[in-house]
Amino acid sequence: MRWAVFDVDGTLLPGTSMERLAVRRLVESGVVTASMLVRFVLSGIRDLAREGIPGLLRNKAYFRGLRERDLSAFSEEMVRRSVVPRIPSAAREEMEGLRRNGYRILLFSGAPDFMLHPLALALGADAAIGTVLEIEDGRFTGRVMAEHLYGPAKTAILKEKAEDLKLDFEKSVVYANDASDAEHMRLFGTAVAVNPRAGLRREARERGWRVTRWQME
Predict the structure, then answer these.
(1) Where are the alpha helices (DSSP H) in the chain?
(2) DSSP per position, 104-164
(3) Are 154 and 183 in contact (CB under 8 A)?
């Protein structure tokens, strides 16, 4: 089966991330307090020192203690008001063209899955794979269940899900923006570097991948 696999942060959503938009709004509304941010910063420094960037990305301490149902409802509103309007028309047109040509659409991102699923619904995507956060007694613990989907973890989860999705890598296409995505992009018959940073721009040039820019109007 042919899939078109779209990264979100920096790709469908140029210049920012869903999580960054969410935390900003949660701080502005007082749901995430100053003490929660301090806790995140202190634990983030520790995780960065111990495990580098992957450790820092697994740290979701600013969500600790928040109820799943509240954050899910918040995410649905945030996607409608703050995320969907930022998606460039060129990205939407690309997605629609692929859909007309028989591709199924997969949103694939390190963003928390409870943010990614409302976006998939809004865009009419067929599936979404995001980072799963740990929940205990209906509240987020501030930790992820396994791995934050970044770098090699993205490659591993795609290979794991390929059979369920009936994903034919050679006949499918992937869109992403960062050098950390290059590993899983190499799995695909067609790869497109969107708004690429320097590392991915070099990779695209060496491999003959198409390079494009999607910017919010």
Answers:
(1) 18-28, 34-51, 53-57, 68-78, 89-100, 113-123, 152-165, 182-185, 198-207
(2) EEEEEEEEEHHHHHHHHHHHT-SEEEEEPEEEETTEEEEEESS--S-THHHHHHHHHHHHH
(3) yes
C-alpha 30 chain-centroid distance? 25
CA 51 to chain centre: 21
Give the three-class secondary structure for 208: coil
Cβ neighbours for 49, distance < 8 A, ≥ 6 positions apart = none
What pTM, to 2 d.p., does this model score?
Answer: 0.91
Cβ-contact 142, 63 below 8 angstroms = yes
* Closest among 2, 191, 194 to 98, alpha carbons compared: 2
pLDDT by position in tens, the chain (length 217): 999 999 999 999 999 999 889 888 888 888 877 777 777 666 767 766 666 666 667 778 888 899 999 999 999 999 999 999 999 999 999 999 999 999 999 999 999 999 999 999 999 999 999 999 999 999 999 888 878 899 999 999 999 999 999 999 999 999 999 999 999 999 999 999 999 989 999 999 999 999 999 998 7
Assigned CATH class of 3-212: alpha beta
Q: How many residues does the chain have?
A: 217
Q: 65 is written with which tokens?
A: 């203690």
Query: What is the Cα–Cα distance from 99 to 147, expressed in whole angstroms?
Result: 30
Quote the tokens at residue 189: 């018959």
